[in-house]
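pasting for ref
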Amino acid sequence: MESNNKEQILVRITGQDRPGLTASIMGILAKYDVEILDIGQADIHNTLSLGILIRVEEVHSGQVMKELLFKTTELGVNIGFSPVSDDEYEAWVERQGKNRYILTILGRKLSARKIEAATKVITSQGLNIDSILRLTGRTSIRNPQKHVRACIQFSLRGTPKDRKELQASLMKLSSEMEMDFSFQLDNMYRRMRRLICFDMDSTLIQTEVIDELAMRAGVGDQVKAITERAMRGEIDFKESFTERVALLKGLDVGVMKEIAENLPITEGVDRLMYVLKRYGYKIAILSGGFTYFGEYLQQRYGIDYVYANELEIDEDGKLTGNYVGEIVDGRRKAELLKLIAQVEKVDIAQTIAVGDGANDLPMLSEAGLGIAFHAKPRVVANAQQSINTIGIDGVLYFLGFKDSYLDEKGRN
């Protein structure tokens, strides 16, 4: 039977980090059979902050603190002790049952002003910050990276007073202060994503291939105007798609190879695909564009699934102005996401969708994590997460990846 003559003490150690420090501390605690109730450590610019909540026999507590004080003096670090009553400890335990959320803040640079604005939103919603973690690597002042990025992850506890208001406040800050946010419930699904589905045009590549084809067919302005209206959600996608394809009639199919070999790949795609493949994600392209270009990217990056639209070609190798099969529109993208998830035996909560246009909204809503990427205003307004400030590899931070997980190839 456990003795009641025990007390809780919070031990706080700060100072220059050095190898063996934690082992030395634990050696003293182990000698007196001390119970560890909680422990956490952070290391900022080689400066250690270590907290240990211990439960120790009252008869030994004085000696334990004395030995810890001697050892930390010897190691050149600071130590402090705070008693924690049984009532305070039980109140802390009770709080552990509250919901946990992850707030990720992302941008080219993160200033104190930006972090202040984000934490004010957190506080106003009654959430408490449990921990703060930097996901991006250290950057050189003298030799900065070409594509600099900064990301901080907050672990939060509590329940938002108004989830919609919280989301709206974060999205407002995103547009005003050039930073991106992801606010997610911290559950098992967030840590076990397995399937990611991408739009292609203006997402994985920085163009709309139908516009590229149209320019070579001499109908660029006409098609581009229809494309922009469709992506803004002003006209039905199927209707606009049929009109645009008809304008391509007579174009030589050889043009498609030249366009594919010169596609402007979005910043961060190489890094993103390398990491996703390395960590076992299944990857799909679900595109309102064309199969030919999706298959080109499939070969380049080892993508698992490609669903897009097939252009009809006549015997002379010319586009007929028609398409073959069912149009991949917004509704079809959402259906395909669910279908692939079933085939791969992946829960829908473990899926991710990334896109920029109005026809991506159904799959963004269906996925466990829907991310609007450099998206149109209507899409951003309806998305839970968005990335507008950096490349598409920003998706990795919303999945919880740290730069330190990646090897040299993955950091580029």
